[in-house]
Backbone:
């Protein structure tokens, strides 16, 4: 089943979200508007808004209220991509030139700032002040995650705990908070929105591990870029960390630096694949997936619960 | 009278603010903590916290509540400086290497993001949700101001209205909001916090115009950098715009570009000084100052009102 089919009952509300996204980034500054619109039109799965809407279905679902949260979360995700692309010197994203490529790093920096600020402005429409606290705290964590990732580039003396902490901050928190804030904006009980947070957190961890695995096993066509990009850029992910338990592979990986040859990266990819590190990583991802499904089991049955289950499973098994 | 003497009765509370600033930027990430601390220790006038505290004196002054606003506003100012230094490729600020110089642009970008996020997290401690709305909206305006400034670099086809709109967004709004939020956090009536906003806005406009004048008339020693820096970097400020009403000077100024010779800049500075543009700019600054003092007159008498008056006058007459 295709991802979109799993939540087709949200289609009209997702159109509302899409329009609202476009409305929100409208800026008096034509340059800012253009840059933001460019980013928006590059598309994306809008998976965070989907989580927000599905989570809100456990409470008093009112799209006029929920949309603020959904749009805000997607904007924060988008802003973090813009700043990420500056860090990674990325020229392309989703087949489109990045803002830093089409304009420059400076425009990208302030476009990111602007979108962040819009997101925070929007969340203030949610009456529960707890929502603002949660969102701003998530932003703090996101920034710490980003800085830690920069610091740990080409640092081969890091352990698996460091990795988990980093992907929690960089990915899982935002998905967790998408689910939680969807619940909060729909006035669910504390018990429920805490469960929604947990579910999102586990799904997010599973999602990021799969993402990191795909960077080793995906084809250039599937990934839209050559495999091994993380390694090449010095981002040491779970498969690399597991493979480094073998001292020979560890020695090879530790030699990777900014100017490493493509052919050396390819050799290492082959070694990592043979080492069993991919399977071990997938097992961890699956553990997180099972935890996510376990939390979901405690929720009352509904169409939304089924959709969340389907999405979580899809994410846990996706091939690209 | 020295600036600090004008509000010496705030001294112990300003120490609280200073400690709180240091406490707030503490991060689990040592790199982030170091970079933020570096910025904090470079000092600064902390004029925004001073405005917050003085404004709060018009209401129920409780330093434990007010400090959240004061620290938040100073953090936003600091974060905007970090991102500004990236844009301007600045190596030094207040005689210290900038974050982008000591580390790099990427660290500077995320340190700025982190400090922004911390500021927003802190403001959620203020119970009145109106405060969150005002602050996030100010951030949006700040970003638009920054982008417009980038867009308008070396653009000689801009008018004085563009200039006023830009300095409103880049400077005056944050000072206005410092005053307003100080009032709101101290539960003043709407009528009072709107006046505080106006006062801050007028002071901020006056302040920025003086700043832009000083860039023409200050000595290298006073400015800590050669005069004419704005012009050289393509920032067309009020004195330049007035001077450009003379077609000969307009022609000269319009030739300034990124690689212009220092000697050409010096010639233009002399022309601008002779043109009467400095005096015209100072008159405008003074008009804003008078408006600020006028708003203040409507406020009930107090020690705090006197301090605000003294500070406004000081800002309007400062030589560096």
Residues:
């Amino acid at each position: 089943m295709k991802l979109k089919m799993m939540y087709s009952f949200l289609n009209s509300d997702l159109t509302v979200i899409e329009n609202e996204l476009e409305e929100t980034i409208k800026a008096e500054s034509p340059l800012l508007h253009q840059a933001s619109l460019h980013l928006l039109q590059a598309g994306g799965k809008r998976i965070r808004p989907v989580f927000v809407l599905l989570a809100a279905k456990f409470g008093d679902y009112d799209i006029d209220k929920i949309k603020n949260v959904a749009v805000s979360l997607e904007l924060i995700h988008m802003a973090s991509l813009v700043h990420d692309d500056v860090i990674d010197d990325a020229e392309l994203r989703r087949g489109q030139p990045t803002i830093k490529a089409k304009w420059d790093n400076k425009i990208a920096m302030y476009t990111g700032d602007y979108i962040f600020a819009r997101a925070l402005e929007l969340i203030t429409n949610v009456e529960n002040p707890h929502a603002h606290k949660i969102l701003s705290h998530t932003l703090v964590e996101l920034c710490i995650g980003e800085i830690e990732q920069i610091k740990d580039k080409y640092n081969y003396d890091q352990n698996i705990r460091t990795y988990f902490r980093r992907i929690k901050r960089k990915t899982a928190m935002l998905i967790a908070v998408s689910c939680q804030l969807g619940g909060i904006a729909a006035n669910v009980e504390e018990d429920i929105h805490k469960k929604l947070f947990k579910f999102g957190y586990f799904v997010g961890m599973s999602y990021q591990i799969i993402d990191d695995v795909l960077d080793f096993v995906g084809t250039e066509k599937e990934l839209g870029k050559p495999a091994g990009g993380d390694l090449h850029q010095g981002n040491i992910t779970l498969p690399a960390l597991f493979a480094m338990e073998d001292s020979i592979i560890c020695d090879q990986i530790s030699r990777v630096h900014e100017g490493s040859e493509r052919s050396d990266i390819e050799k290492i990819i082959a070694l990592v694949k043979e080492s069993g590190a991919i399977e071990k990583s997938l097992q961890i991802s699956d553990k997180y997936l099972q935890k996510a499904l376990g939390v979901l089991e405690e929720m009352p049955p509904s169409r939304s619960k089924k959709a969340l289950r389907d999405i979580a499973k899809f994410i846990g098994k996706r091939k690209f």
In short: The longest strand of chain A covers residues 92-93. Strands of chain A lie at 92-93, 96-97. Chain A touches chain B at residues 27-29, 31-32, 83, 86-87, 105-107, 109-114, 116-118, 120-121, 124, 127, 129, 132-133, 136-137, 139-140, 142-144, 146-148, 150-151 (CB under 8 Å). The mean pLDDT of chain A is 91.
